[in-house]
Amino acid sequence: MGSIKNFLPKFNLVEESKQYKYSFTIFVxxxxxEQTIYRVFDALDKQTFKDFEVVIINDxxxxxxxxxxxxxxxxxDYPVRYINNNINTHKMSIMHQAIHMAEGELFLIHDxxxxxxxxxxxxxxxxxxxxxxxxxxxxSGVSCCCVDQYDKLVGxxxxxxxxxxxxxxxxxxxxxxxxxxxxxxxSLLKNIKIKDEIFSKGFIPESFLWLTLSSQNYKIKYxxxxxxxxxxxxxxxxxxxxxxxxxxxxxxVYSLMFINFFYRNHLLKKPFLFVKRTISLLKSxxxxxxxxxxxxxxxxxxxMKFVFIIFWPIRRYI
Length: 318
Prior knowledge:
This protein is α/β, with parallel strands linked by helices.
């Protein structure tokens, strides 16, 4: 079965020599979105900035999404590549697929049940290009705030606008919570190496990507512009409705990433959060077939190894 540690994403920076064809690739993951996909097409039609392509992947929807999308594709005047999967492989898998297809400099995930303002791409383009050229290599992208369909802020704002941090430190030190949304350099996403076999093991959180970029010390330019309309309470959240057994592998690898990638610089500053992640790893272990030795060898921190061993006998009660 091998070590669970072998499934941690790796980052291998390779500078791409090619020029991207577009400023943006907009990726639209679709699963049973026949009633909401119109929001995406309406939002894209209204964009004031036109230098973008769209990649749509329908992940084996069981409703009429395919036909609805095909009808819209007859009317669009921007480049679209559409893939209709026969087998459901989950969002992270099709995102991985879209990243390697992308021909835009910046990559934006636009969920099939959300919308955005007509100025969205223009704002992202301007904010990214306002980063000084000599500093741009330090940044992975730009991220903004979201509102719900009633124009209420989802989560909280950043301490300032712009605000410079990363996904890990926003969570750990700045108490930033709620939905955030943004563009990421496609070249960096292509440099994250994820084993294909991980996608057959259940739900894999897309935060794999943001945590990996945080571990490489890439910063994000955060802005308080409210560009995304995030529809809430329309249907049961797919992630929360999944049984933990289907999320266990992804949660285990995520917890191991959190511990191994960051313990050297952050464990002594925020020990409780590392203990919390270790307990999450223990909870996941109840549904996986790895033995204690495999987990202990996979954890790099000796202190977290000790915590894991101490709680192992009672993990069934966690």
